Amino acid sequence: MNAEVAIIKTAAETALAQAFSQARWRLPGDGAIAAQRAAAFDVFAKTGLPHRRIEEWKYTDLRALMREAKPLAAPPDAAAKARAKTAGALLGDVETRRLVFVDGAFVAELSDIAALEPGLSVGSLADALSNGDPTLNSHLGKLAPASDAAVALNTALMGDGAVIRIAAGATIERPIHLLFVASAMPAATFVRSLVVVEKGARAMLIESHEGPAGSDYQVNAALEIFVGDEAHVDHVKIIGEGSDALHVSTLAAAIGARARFNAFTFTTGGAVVRNQLFLKFDGEDTLAGIRGATLIKGRQHADTTLVADHVAQRCQSREMFKTVLDGEAHGVFQGRIIVRPHAQKTDAKMMTRALLLSERAEADNKPELEIFADDVQCGHGATAGALDDELKFYLMARGIPQPEAEALLIRAFLGEAIEGIEHAGLREALMDAVVAWLEAR
After folding, report:
1. Residue 367: left (phi > 0), alpha (psi -120 to 50), or beta?
2. Which side of the chain, N or C, has fewer Cβ within a 10 Å radius?
3. pLDDT tens-digit profile of 285-344?
4. What is the Cα–Cα distance from 218 to 236, expressed in whole angstroms?
5. Domain ranges of the chain
């Protein structure tokens, strides 16, 4: 006799099921898109919110951290749009082409969509879903891992986002800035963006997320980037969410032959942040630099999970992530480099370092290698520790007060990762953000 096992749903999982049931008929897209949504939610319904028994989520038990699921965000009102006009201040004087989303919805009147450069096409995902854009059939959902619970939930409930196409050989001089702004309402947004960069094109994409302190809103964001052969793409993500926000995001990229791809993640905000990257090296002779800097304090929790999948031969990747933790903050880094059997002459190196400013802070670093080829150069390393007392004493002995001496060392520690950003103005803006965080510490 076989006993039936009943799966106990948490309050958040039950609320998410109700939200999908109520919203599925009014979400944009029908036919194949509706079927894709239903299949994705079936994946989530079977697995539920990820928890510590799932190895990839061992250090970020979302089932325990996400006590409730907020209702889906309503379309932004005039007041929310007005507040969003001042968003994106962290970038300072960096000139960008802004695409603004408020509570997950594209706001054309706040966006810079006029006089597009030759070869550049931008639009709203909601419009593309409603109009049956053929680009979605061949690209949407092809990169993000469908078995991942966060991705499945995003696919089921995706409402809006950006659809960007860059034609072969085009060079987009101004960075394209996807600015996602949350209003004061405690709601949930599910944003999905798609970027297709064709052969030989070049562009820089900035993705930033921000919102007010004191509002426990929730964000589930996903971005898929197709990098064509010989293209050059830079992606910089800035997570400056409100102090009580929950932020889960996914970047999935497929990189063609002889391409260059750089990704940088800068995290300072949010109560709970999970930032996952899935990178696939599809073409040979590709160069990639994957870096990140995280500064958290209090009881913040920030998790960076990376999978770099080397499928083609003679590719080079460098991964470097720096984390600074104060108070009772918890930092997590999980990085895995996979080298497939045919990916000979792969050159991949990964390093993660955590700087603990408090005895109560915690850092979990877990770099991994899975190598199935024999002619490769791969390595990884991980360190965690406090500020170097000798270096601090050296600075203080030359008349620098202790707080300033510590700040100089922290800036130097993070600078090694930030200096990898090619855009000089953006490098300076992020270093200014580091200084502001240190002053507020």
Report:
1. beta
2. N
3. 999 999 999 999 999 999 999 999 999 999 999 999 999 999 999 999 999 999 999 999
4. 21
5. 11-283, 388-441
